[in-house]
Amino acid sequence: MKIKRFLAADMRQAMRDVRAEQGADAVILSTRRLEEGIEIIAAVDYDESLMREAARHGSPATPAAKPPVTETAKEAPKERVKDIVKEPAKEARATTPPPPPIPVPQSEIATLQPIVEQSVLETARMRTELGGLRQLLEQQLSSLAWNDMERRSPMRARVLRDMSRLGIDTDVARQLIDELPEHLNADQARYLPLGLLSRSLKVSGRRLTDSQGVTALVGPTGVGKTTTIAKLAANAVMNHGPGKVALVSTDHYRIGAAAQLEHYGRLLGVRVYPAYDAAGLEQTLNLLRDHHTVLVDTAGVSGNDPRLQQQMDVLRGASTQGSAKLRACLVLAANAQASALDESVRAYLPLQPSACIATKLDEAPSLGGVLSVLIRHRLALDCTTDGQRVPEDISAADARVLVCRAAQTQRRLGPGADDLDMAERFGLAVASL
């Protein structure tokens, strides 16, 4: 019988050492916890009768070594390593909790710090390389898909080029492509997409003379809400007289906002009423309930401004509690980027605007952005403005006129995107078709 002492940091490692050196048939004679870790006394070729005889005479059973027999070794039944290894969960429950982790000396931390930093840098470099590789593969896939489409369906590729030249966003252009017939000739590829574009554009059908009720113009700053209100008020004055038209200002944030509206009011002979909260707006609207047209000018607030929610609460409160139904109209500047327009629409959607007004058409290099946003969100268009003159530079919305104007604007700008740009914009979308 061979007896040996094993010392390890924890029970799992000690059992692993016993099994590795003495095999699965080794017998555990005792276990105890020391400052150095876990001590295990194990034996092979174990003879229990010999151990009892040695204990009775106080002599060692073998000249190899005398194990430090503990109370655990005397009373506990002997277990073989193979029986313990079969049930690791049971062994873990039976032993005492593992010792606390040994603190790492500061000298070792200083030694390991450069290694850790180098590992972090290597990981970042690998991520950058993988990102670049992925981008390269996507570009190659896009180019292959676009070249294949130009070869198989040259007319559909031409339509996508025209949509790109108009500035139509990728998702809207793909939606229009899906509605085209399978086989196109040159004339159809030239005119049919414009017809589909105008048909997809939703208009309210509201004329400039149809201004009865309460209309609040909302939107981000700088889109021309106050000037547009002056144009709408001028048309209402010409049709119903100044006594039936009133202007209300809720903009108490921007310096000079009320003064600008009051200036227009004096020119038109229309009174301007201030309202700074929901109760004040409700009281003012009740006072003006016998007027034909009431136009509310609001503060320009961007989508990430915390005052936006406050302004929405004011308009909702006046709409639900007041006697007159308030109609919210979102004002969008056509010369803004498509992403900014989309962000504005998403910010004001909780207000559930009844319609939109597209302003500054004369300053927009492309109308594709505003057209894409209106089609994507299915927003009805009330009217458009294309200048600062009051009241001349405003007209009721007409989808065909607006699409033709967009096409004429792009023809003046010359050729559109090259093959690389087309592949980048539409390649992946074409591959998914």
Automatic annotation (TrEMBL):
This is Flagellar biosynthesis protein FlhF. Residues 212-408 form the SRP54-type proteins GTP-binding domain. It is a peripheral membrane protein. It is found in: Cell membrane. Keywords: Bacterial flagellum biogenesis, Bacterial flagellum protein export, Cell membrane, Cell projection, Cilium, Flagellum, GTP-binding, Membrane, Nucleotide-binding, Protein transport, Transport. NCBIfam families: FlhF. CDD domains: FlhF. The keyword Isomerase does not apply. The gene is flhF. Belongs to the GTP-binding SRP family. The keyword Transport applies. It comes from the Bacteria. Residues 72-82 have a biased composition (Basic and acidic residues). Pfam families: SRP54 (PF00448). The lineage of its organism: Bacteria, Pseudomonadati, Pseudomonadota, Gammaproteobacteria, Lysobacterales. Residues 53-82 are annotated as: Disordered. Residues 211-351 form the AAA+ ATPase domain. Necessary for flagellar biosynthesis. May be involved in translocation of the flagellum.
